UniProtKB/TrEMBL annotation:
Signal peptide: 1-23
Subcellular locations according to the entry: Periplasm
Protein's name in the database: Cytochrome c4
Family annotation (InterPro entries): Cyt_c-like_dom (IPR009056), Cyt_c-like_dom_sf (IPR036909), Cytochrome_c4-like (IPR024167), Cytochrome_c_Oxidase_Subunit (IPR050597)
Taxonomic source organism: Limnohabitans radicicola
Entries under Pfam families matching the protein: Cytochrom_C (PF00034)
Cytochrome c domain span: 28-110, 122-207
Cross-referenced Gene3D superfamilies: Cytochrome c-like domain (1.10.760.10)
A molecular-function term among this protein's GO annotations: electron transfer activity
Organism superkingdom: Bacteria
Binding annotation for heme c 2: 135, 138-139, 184
Amino acid sequence: MNKLLTSMFALAVASVTAFSAQAQEVKGDAKAAEQKIAMCIGCHGIKGYQASFPEVYRVPMISGQNAKYIAAALNAYKKGDRKHPTMRGIADSLSDQDIADISAYYEQHGKTDAVVPAPTAPDAKVAALLQKGACVSCHGDNFSKPVDPSYPKIAGQHKDFLFVALKSYKTENQSTWGRSNGVMGGIAKQFSNAELKALSAYVGSLEGELKTVPQSKFR
């Protein structure tokens, strides 16, 4: 299994390198994004806002997230690698420049110089699950310093969102829900839903850099 994960990780790095080279062609303008984020604010700018499809969960915190990851996620919705009707519709409406601008905006949005404390050690069961999934090999120290900025920070993310996201990598043959990603799919399918819930609860309990910054559509 470790050999398989190593091979999958190498493939992911190669894919990320190719994406990063392409992403460098479009430079994001955070200031310009102020006129483009109205569609984001309705969900991601409200603390505790819950989505109801395919189940009830809090939408992810995106302020403080890596710009390259936000861009990668939006492009995945645009291509259909991530299936979600609302996000697909939003992503389809965005140009490459829009995606770069919005991603740059949310990376710096609400950012502070506060030092994130070291995480509380997990119990033995969760520690074994983290080792099995080799989670730190991509998401980095404290799960807040990914080895490549095209990977997400996950420390402190809503545990119910993390659980739904992880389950979505196991979802196949659905037209409106699921995520197609060879690396994350291979990892998530190793675990039962109960184990994914335990992983999500631990990672969500950590201190991190992600936050929801309340915003009004009417400014």
